[in-house]
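[agent] plan:
  1. take the single chain provided in the ticket
  2. run structure prediction with default settings
  3. attach structure tokens to the ticket
  4. add a short note for the reviewer (M.T.)
[agent] executing step 1
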Amino acid sequence: MSERVAIVGGGVAGCAVARELAPAFEVELFEAGQLASGATALAAGEVTMLSSYPDEPAIGRHALEFFRAYDGTGEFAFTELPSVGVVTPDREAEKRRYADRLAADGLPVRYLDREAAAESYPTFDLSGLAGLVEFDGTGFLDPYTFAITLAEEATDRGATVHTKTPVADLRVEDGAVVGLDLEAGSVDADHVVVAAGWHSRALLADHVEIPIRPYRTQCIVLRPETPLPGSFPMGWYPGEHVYFRPEHNGDLLVGGWSFAEDDPEGASGDADEAFRQHVAELVPTFLGGLDGAGYVDGWAGIDAASPDTRPIVDAPSDAPEGLLVATGFNGRGVMTAPVTATTVRSLLTGEPAPFPTEPFAIDRFESRSDEFEFVSISAGE
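[agent] step 2 finished; step 3 output follows
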């Protein structure tokens, strides 16, 4: 009989882990609501792993290779296109050095001065800018479709998925996990993987301290008077707390404006008027033809942040034996899902991962407190 693994959380991380572990393990996934109904459903779906892990390129390449290979599985699609960072005149020299350094390390990045940027991306208004830093090997996807496709494959491989099944606590005997206490009954397991987003800290409070805290992030969709061209890239504006990407219909999605949230249960699910105003004032300064863009939709959601903005995917040494944790994704949970799944499998089996897993280890933090200063990745580099 295979070892039994119980996964807590039916977001994209939990679904990816379930797919990865079945059928080598007897997998059951437990989600309090519906699959992908939390942070996953509200994510922008950007994949920028190469630029997110420039110091560990094997991590980014593993994720990118997965998305390229997974494109076309079921209803899932991965749209690959470049991403660009806006460069203001005061940071031109710094960003040139940054791009040159990463390119020398073998990453697909280059600095485009104003003339080259205007030729490659005529939609941009570069009159007040120095240029753009351009990354290849990036793209976007629909997070909900991705998570559901992963869950369907997990089921096909033998996993069992339980929705509307809240988990009350871990069952621990003699220092090891033996299963889960559900709000209705219990389940036995040899290993438990907690991938419950910002809920993970409270769920594990009696067993191990996890240094994460909830934060709120937002997205809005704008409709330009003329649909964005197919060559329009993804991107971010350093210092302005926004990132952006095109929609398939030519609309523009703008996300960011992330701040620590002390009342995650009571936080609004609507985009703030202040964020809408910020975007309305900022976007026309670097994108032509967006002055008269219409507002299509907006939303806000809660995710989990770690002190250094990188996730925790580990089996903590001070936790009950058999417990693994995958949380603190800081808005990168969708793009990190393939890496999360491979890391969990490596931790369970002892098989080496094809990339370093030390960046995800919990012992990198001196403190496990949740009273750390929140750092927003939407602020950009």
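[agent] step 4 note for reviewer: Residues 32 and 165 are 5 Å apart (CA to CA).
[agent] ticket updated
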